[in-house]
Amino acid sequence: MQRAVNMVAQLGLRLQALPLALGRPLSCAQTKILGCDRVKLMESLVVGDIAELRPNQGTLSLFTNEAGGILDDLIVTSTSEGYLYVVSNAGCRDKDLALMQDKVRELQNEGSDVSLEVVDNALLALQGPTAAQVLQAGVADDLRKLPFMTSAVMEVFGVSGCRVTRCGYTGEDGVEISVPAAAAVHLATALLENPEVKLAGLAARDSLRLEAGLCLYGSDIDEHTTPVEGSLSWTLGKRRRAAVDFPGASVIVAQLKGKVQRRRVGLMCEGAPMRAHSPILNTEGTVIGTVTSGCPSPCLKKNVAMGYVPYEYSRPGTPLLVEVRRKQQMAVVSKMPFVTTNYYTLK
User: Fold this and answer.
1) Annotated binding residues for substrate, as ranges?
2) 65 located within any domain
3) Which end of the chain is less packed: N or C, by CB atoms within 10 Å?
């Protein structure tokens, strides 16, 4: 399944068939949570089991409100240096920082040992099946020992103090490199000197994350969506579920035990591509939901999308209709990811 490399910027082709793609520096919020009560603070805001993380292991988690709605998705890493490293979305930067800073002040007033430090770093995403091979040339650490969702601080092509995390929002193997902002252009230039590496923008990343069934905050999940509705129940730590001690837990745990009214599902169709806000209908023609993300899949040569439908229509294989350009066309509920992910795990 080989494809022309020069099409990556135009179509965002699956990185399985490309050497590499280098995303632009991201303006994500990067913070350190320090102090003996750092886990206490983070677990007061997110649904995940942060206490169980091993040194330098990270997890995708969710900020939630008291109604169970998702305020943002984020990655929390428990570092061997004794702090939590948090990366959240650029579009939610201000509200996420305010949320954490308010909680820091609250706990400090109660006598807790906790503080927050904003990290003035850029974030470069190097994604693709040969990402580790390319990066290995510029680091002393053995990247074979760095599996998915783990990280380490290292010098990268002469830039010291970089945190390399084996992750990325493409469904492929790759890394995200937290680099001091002043050195971001230098590092990007060094990576691009390898002919394997090509620049890719957010449009390319969007088709990749959609093929991998990954949510985009503000489109597929938001403050009015719970983790259960968003098919993100796997982010809820088992201990946290039992303790019912995270924001919105009473709502979310009740949904886990019963049926939710709606669920995020994958959709596939042929014909015109489904786009955000396209109506979803049952086969009788009644509107039952809405598409939240959609695009042609370069890998599958079909159109893929996500959207919300009532629970009774959420089973894979269920036939539905979508309205595209005022015309109805057949669609089918499909399992996600649409394309098998290729994360690197230790054998």
Assistant:
1) 176
2) yes
3) C
